[in-house]
Amino acid sequence: MVWHLLRIIAYHLYNASMVYYINMKRADNKSHCPVNFALETFGDNWSLLIVRDIVFWGKKTYGEFLESGEGIATNVLAARLAHLERKGILIKKPHATDRRKEIYVLTEKGLALIPILLEMSGWSSRYDPETTAPKSFVEAVYKDRDNMFKQIQQVVREGGCLFAGKHPIVKR
């Protein structure tokens, strides 16, 4: 009987310590190196792909993000959206017409990532022989970088995107 009680107590202590360990969060970044800060904020591939989907394809809902070609798992998507919210990259708002849904919108901090995404796309279009990046668009961005960055940020700020929807930037 005593042995059984000791096992139960040990089991609960172990579980409590694991919950504490799992829920422990580092209060600060690993370092204050600017590259480290960026990587800890948005450096995993899923976070950047969510931002890409908003900027390039105008995706806004959980279901739309799930439809992306890379095949993100539901638990990973939920965790990444929550992470991006905590970091101030995006905010969640109620859907205008469907009260069951929420939409995700980039904050000003998130909009500031657009030049990084475009630079990554330009780099990839140069070095990936099978790139899906439209060469003419990449050339237009590089022709007048600062103006294009500002124009794209404004369009996304207003709810638009690069390649989809009624008035994509690429068709202008």
Descriptive report:
The chain is mainly α and 172 residues long. The protein contains nine helices and two strands. The chain has one domain: Winged helix-like DNA-binding domain superfamily/Winged helix DNA-binding domain (Arc Repressor Mutant, subunit A), CATH 1.10.10. The chain has a two-stranded antiparallel ribbon. A hairpin with a 7-residue loop joins β1 and β2. It is globular, with a radius of gyration of 21 Å.
In quaternary terms, these chains amount to single chain
- Major sheet size, sense and barrel closure: 2 strands, antiparallel
Percent of residues in beta strands?
A: 5-15%
Number of helices: 9
| Overall CATH architecture | Orthogonal Bundle
DSSP E strands, number = 2
Average pLDDT figure: 82
CATH topology: Arc Repressor Mutant, subunit A
* CATH homologous superfamily (4th level) name: Winged helix-like DNA-binding domain superfamily/Winged helix DNA-binding domain
Distance between termini?
A: 78 Å
**SSE order:** HHHHHEEHHHH
Structural class: mainly alpha
